[in-house]
Amino acid sequence: MKELSGGITAVPGFLASGTYSGIKKVEKKDLALIFSEKPCTAAGLFTKNEVKGAPVIISQRNIKKGIGQAIVANSGNSNACTGKQGTKDAEEMAALTAKALNIKSNLIYVASTGVIGEPMPMEKVRNGIANAALRLSKEGGRDAAEAIMTTDTFLKEKAVQIDVGGKTITIGGIAKGSGMIYPNMATMLSFIATDAKIASSDLRDALKAAVDKSFNMTTVDGDMSTSDMVICLANGVSGVSITRNKGYKDFQDGLNYVCTELAKMIVKDGEGATKFVEIRIKGAKTFNDAKKIGMAIGNSNLVKTALFASDANWGRIMCAIGYSGVKINADKIDLFVDNVKMVGNGIGLGKEAEMEATEVLKQKEFAITVDLRLGKAEATVWTCDFSYDYVKINAAYRT
To answer: Does the global pTM surpass 0.85?
Structure first.
């Protein structure tokens, strides 16, 4: 596997652009367009929040046929809780994009992220789509990644080249996400492209498997967005066919890697975050048990604030394990911060261990490992701390 620069446009046959249309109050790119020069097989996963933005509903409808050719996405306005007008606006975004690219509107996926409940400024959007279509280029991947950002502090892109039976395929993607991160399908927004030739059903299975190991293992603040989606387009221009019997594992490994790297970037860019934390749960009876415990720890405000303060308050972690809903034996639990053992057989190992752990917690990145000693299943969850800035950012979000 070889890493490439260029994100989504590192993939042959894909063009992209990002432009400022005026949706955002400040002059920053706010409209992205991604286009394949030929039709693609397509797969997508979407938020399970019952309150869905209009673009999610439109894109869910279009994904049923398993084909696609373009994605239009805006930041600054989520087009959620906007009623029938919101649906009309999302449909118009697809129609305008289709007209500008001379393709059918059912090949367009629409995504929006930003403030909930405000009407889309369609005059600005119309001009933005026209401008974005004119700016499409092989070098436009970074602009597209920038245009989907909201409270993100850095753009998120990743691309790899992998060998499949002596031939080469490319997988590249972009993502946005910083707050309202607790997905139950994918991430806030992520768009992935590949030049592999693969059936839509196989692509969806591969995407779901990758998402379950990456985006679905992240939490910043425990809130699930109304606008989450991940779309993957495969244009087949490499000529390399991926089937269940040929190249599927290699493709899956590459897709897993791209999704995982993007997911980690989202957590590292958590709103106000100062620390990136990997939570490793070992010795569980099942993967689902391990995930539940990892998420309980990662979502605990008390744990996250202790991490911000570099406070080795292991009792908060034990507490989260206990209320996770998983049947455990507290007297068997071992707990580590990196290589420092703080708890053995459910009992704290004293002030010296806490002092060593405190030094680890001062680092920007570290791991918390919980060994339940009940089985062989394990799971890894990624989270971050809660700082003063998280409150400041979200208190001032609409102002």
So the answer is: yes
